[in-house]
Amino acid sequence: MNAAAVIRDATHADLGAIAAIFGHYVTQTVATFEEIPPTADDWEHRLAELTGRGLPFLVAEVPGDDGLNVAGYAYAGPWRPRPAYRHTVEDSIYLAPGRTGAGLGAALLGTLLTRCATAGVRQVVAVIADTGSDASIALHRRFGFTPAGRLAGVGHKHGRWIDTHLMQRDLTTGPAAHGEP
């Protein structure tokens, strides 16, 4: 990771950058099944909901020409709405275009897992769209996620059907209990 990068809690001031990063993935890729980019106001509601539940919402901040800039973000959200799922979350990690390959995703995921364990989360699920790149799968595998299934043709975006890979990590045993890879 870039030695100058800082992983910290997201704040209201970060939401414009988060909306811009995610907007790129919504409009240009199949990495998310969203089709309309959420606004900064939408992200304000998501930030309040997740932090209100005690779940982590993080940003990776790196030095830029005009000071520190948000280069990526990660958060844990409820896996499903039913109460029995309350100890299971789904992770989301997105990096600004041009910021991949520098270790920011690993820094975000490692911190996210540590914070999830501290919050009492037992299971973390990753739902990874089959974009044609294995980078997200490889990242999750490095952090102890194991394959939990594949859903064929469950999304349709940009004129094609997309599969998703499901991966899972138990935070209650071994190194996973401490958010370590």
UniProtKB/TrEMBL annotation:
Q: Which UniProt keywords apply?
A: Acyltransferase, Transferase
Q: Does the keyword Transferase apply?
A: yes
The residues forming a coiled coil are none
Any idea of its EC number?
2.3.1.183
GO MF term (any one): phosphinothricin N-acetyltransferase activity
Q: Which InterPro entries match?
A: Acyl_CoA_acyltransferase, GNAT_dom
Q: EC class of this enzyme?
A: transferase
Tell me the ranges covered by the N-acetyltransferase domain, including all copies.
5-172
Q: Which PANTHER family match?
A: ACYLTRANSFERASE FABY-RELATED, N-ACETYLTRANSFERASE
Designated name of the protein: Phosphinothricin acetyltransferase
Q: Which organism is it from?
A: Streptomyces demainii
Species lineage:
Bacteria, Bacillati, Actinomycetota, Actinomycetes, Kitasatosporales
